[in-house]
Specification:
The protein is mainly beta. It has a single domain, classed as Rubrerythrin, domain 2, CATH 2.20.28.10. Helix content is about 0%, strand content about 20%. A three-stranded antiparallel sheet has the order 2-1-3, with no helix packed on it. A hairpin with a 5-residue loop joins strand 1 and strand 2. It is globular, with a radius of gyration of 10 Å.
Length: about 55
C-alpha cells in the first residue's frame, strides 16, 4: 500500500486506510479512485493536480 500527498494543501491519502468519509473503502488503490474525485481538504480535482508518492 502507498501513501500520496496533495501538492496543493498537503492532505495525505493512505491506500491502506482509504477515506471512508469520502466513500473510499480501506485498501482502495489511488488508480481506482474515480477521476471526478476531489481532495477533501482543498477541493482540487484529482486530474487537476499531481499526487506525490511519499
Amino acid at each position: 500500500m502507498k501513501r500520496y500527498e496533495c501538492i496543493v494543501c498537503g492532505w495525505i491519502y493512505d491506500e491502506e486506510l482509504g477515506c471512508p468519509e469520502e466513500g473510499i473503502a480501506p485498501g482502495t488503490k489511488w488508480e481506482d479512485i474515480p477521476d471526478d474525485w476531489t481532495c477533501p481538504e482543498c477541493g482540487v480535482g484529482k486530474l487537476d493536480f499531481e499526487m506525490l508518492e511519499i
